[in-house]
Model the fold of this input.
Amino acid sequence: MAFETATEIQQEHNQKVKQVYSEVAKVVVGQEYMVNRLMIGLFTNGHILLEGVPGLAKTLTISTLARVLHLDFARIQFTPDLLPADLVGTMIYNQKDGKFEVKKGPIFANIILADEINRSPAKVQSALLEAMQEKQVTIGETSFNLDRPFLVMATQNPVENEGTYPLPEAQIDRFMMKVFVNYPSKADELEIMRRISNMQFDYQVNPILTKEDIFAIRKEVNNVKISESLEKYIIELVSATRKPKEYKLDHEAQYIQFGASPRASINLNLASRAMAYLDGRDYVLPEDIKEVALDVLNHRIILNYEAEADNVRTGDIIKVLLSKVPINK
Done:
């Protein structure tokens, strides 16, 4: 029996990743962009914040992806009366044994959907973000490690602001990417309408990747090469958000209150390497960085009131940065 080489194993993983898209497509029409971003987060140990109006299959996409990846999934509906204990768990008294026992909360799953995270108060948001950062929770006097892999996909509804608790900028920064989910195309919406109206609910999907596959893919992503010139390009992009005038971005400078944090450069590096891997390459191209720049930066650049008055969006600023900051060889 011949042993598989590292290249053959990686090719097998690349093929399985392609199958993940086709399996999810059995249930979810379109939304390949969302699936791509979720897999980037999964393969780089990051977390994703989604923002989009209701009815765009955010919940269906993440739950289907969990089944295709053969991972435990938990959906947590964030509400104003939610408590941290409802999330991480609590101590309960067992009358039979006369002892307190730990009852673990829904956070003990591999993939967590934090639905409408901005509807819960700061204590609950902080409990989730602490688990994201530390990969562990403390119940009583005992700390418990969360199962790996661990991916949080949080959603925000941009339509309603009443009764919400917006995430502070410092906490949003802990999400690797903030992804805006758009309406489906006309062709996709026609297919969605036909499936639902004809009662075609084909929810039979096959598990494609195992936990071992995911851990192996993480190592392969980590081995994707990025040149020194592209590393410096990432630093220049992030630096341009902080000191735009030094990059001759005088017009944009009047709208930027705070630039991106060091997490931006770290996540641009990770996300661009994951993008290259998902594209079947073991090296990063400038296009990979530009492809993920909007999602990595759009929640890390804080605009001022003047930008709001002039209807300037963060995405507009990022497009200018990508067009004007050069790549030095």
About this structure: The mean pLDDT is 88. Residues 6-195 form a domain with the Rossmann fold fold (CATH 3.40.50.300). The first helix runs from residue 6 to 25. The first strand starts at residue 48 and ends at 51.
